[in-house]
Amino acid sequence: MELPAVLCPAHPEFWTQFYAKGGTGERTYEWFMGFEGYWPALQPLLKAEDRLLHPGCGNSLFSTEVLTADDCPTGLSIVNCDLCNSVIELMSEQLQTWSPSVQERTSFVVQDVCAMTF
What we know:
- One of its GO terms (biological process) is methylation.
- The chain is of the alpha/beta class.
- The chain is built from five helices and three strands; from the N terminus they run ααβαβααβ.
């Protein structure tokens, strides 16, 4: 079994290699839990015009799942950030296939959440 050169998930090169090799082999990867797991806890906390930060977004469908939920507050927006430029490029391309209402309220940026520039 070939191991990645960098074995630390905190290092950007780990994720660059992860996505370059096809990640898990799935189109998307939810490393913690899926929508059904977090939505009941998250939804009551959200308010219209809130702006969520999704750090380490990878190729997660978090944005589209939240923003298309029937009980999602109007005006909610999501900023997805990741250190891996290639996955942000991939997700920015996928964003163009999502509904216009999701596109208007979603952005993907390459950022280090420990050194945010906004």
